[in-house]
Design a protein that fits this description.
This protein has 212 residues and is an alpha/beta fold. It contains eight helices and five strands; from the N terminus they run βαβααβααβααβα. α4 packs antiparallel against α5 and α4 packs across α7. The structure holds ligand Z5A.
Amino acid sequence: MDNKFITIEGLDGAGKTTVAHRMISYLNQYGITKILTTHEPGGTPISDLLRILIKYGGPTDEPINNTSELLMIYTARLQLIENVIKPALSKGYWVIGDRYDLSSQAYQGAGREMDTLLLHTLSDKITNILSPDLTFYLDISPELSLSRINNRRTLDRIEKEPLIFFDRVRSCYKKLASEKKNIITIDATQSLEEVSITIYRYLNWWFLCQQE
Ligand code: Z5A
């Protein structure tokens, strides 16, 4: 089967990273062994530096403007697309993206309540370059998200936002998932086993559709 770009989205602690790793074993069973995973923001030397700024700010308490945050996120994404994802796809790799453009719609657009003109311009430009073949949105409540990440050493700038911020993020994810056919919502309050099985079933079905 041709290479594909699959992305996984959701709140912190929804299980994205765990699911991405399980998906590799699943794809291996189909003989798909050339697989690359990405985790945004980050994934190139420049994107990784931006990841630190986005998550923790600079060495002083200089405030980060919301638009600056958005531009850093898209700069990191563009570096990743051009220098990692596109070259991998062109060599026949499947790419599993742990977060992608939907995260910016949800966190910056809805969470930060930003004016959508710049966001949509950036998103359209990026989506035009490369849009995912399939996206899994792992849905959990902000309360469950917090309880799953509670024993982390340090919370980042975004994780420190109040619950209402994550309510907006979740509503946006749900709205986008209801509008687009290639976004599959998964109830990620289930056990990891159940989440994985549900995703495998969708992948199985999707593979069959691709062969038709
Ligand atoms: N951000 C943004 O604002 N805009 C953007 O465009 C992009 C990102 C791309 C990245 O943080 C931050 O950047 C993020 C959004 C913002 N900040 N916030 N908030 P990150 O890279 O550090 O974190 P993350 O991407 O959210 O990943 P995560 O916190 O590691 O969550 P996860 O990958 O979804 O979950 P996990 O690591 O697989 O699991 C976490 C724990 O939960 C672990 O102990 C699991 O065993 C447990 N878990 C997961 N699923 C289950 C189930 N189903 N049952 C029980 N326990 C579970």
